[in-house]
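pls design
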């Protein structure tokens, strides 16, 4: 599990492309200071397993399903990526629950400056937007952020200067793609309430919005 607090920016040093898979070698320092084979590291929000490492780099395999469902396929040599190690017991929990399993790929539609903040507008598909709520949480390229506004197929987030300086969103441009992971709590609520029409099993749930309201879970 991750928190969406980026620990450092890494640099893609090598990309080996298979028929459908990719092997990434990424230069880093902090996240490999205590690394072991088999450890998980979030690369732009995608949970990858370390298969090789040395004092300056680690290597991870990206399987075909992950290539197809994330923006990692568009990475090039020299690309800068967000890196985060898994949460350890006793660590401060400063972001939100991030699994490292990407729900969809979004596209940056606009970046506007508002005083000391940068407002980023992201276009996303229904597989992500159904979990988007104003003031809710979203992981963008592994960065834990709060949703400011949202529409049918878009939402905005606000970056403080620190976040803009230590993550990829600070320099990404309009038209660039990003990995999106919705708040896992929304997915469980959807499952329990049977809101997803294709989920036949969840329709049998006895949990309802009326039950939540009666027991003080919603207002």
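designed seq:
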């Amino acid at each position: 599990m991750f928190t969406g607090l980026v620990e450092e920016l890494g640099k893609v040093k090598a990309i080996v492309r298979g028929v459908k898979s990719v092997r990434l070698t990424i230069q880093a320092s902090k996240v490999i200071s205590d690394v072991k084979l088999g450890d998980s590291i979030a690369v732009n929000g995608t949970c990858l397993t370390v298969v090789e490492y040395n004092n300056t780099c680690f290597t991870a395999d990206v399987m075909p399903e992950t290539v197809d469902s994330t923006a990692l396929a568009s990475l090039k040599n020299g690309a800068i990526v967000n890196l985060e190690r898994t949460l350890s017991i006793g660590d401060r929990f400063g972001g939100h629950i991030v699994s490292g399993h990407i729900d969809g790929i979004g596209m940056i539609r606009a970046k506007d400056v508002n005083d000391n903040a940068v407002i980023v507008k992201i276009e996303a598909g229904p597989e992500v937007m159904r979990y988007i709520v104003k003031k809710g949480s979203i992981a963008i390229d592994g960065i834990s952020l709060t949703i400011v506004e949202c529409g049918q197929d878009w939402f905005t987030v606000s970056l403080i200067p620190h976040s803009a300086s230590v993550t990829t969103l600070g320099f990404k441009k309009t038209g660039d793609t990003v990995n999106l992971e919705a708040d896992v709590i929304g997915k469980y609520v959807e499952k329990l309430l049977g809101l997803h029409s294709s989920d036949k099993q969840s329709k049998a749930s006895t949990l309802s919005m009326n039950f939540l309201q009666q027991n003080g879970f919603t207002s």
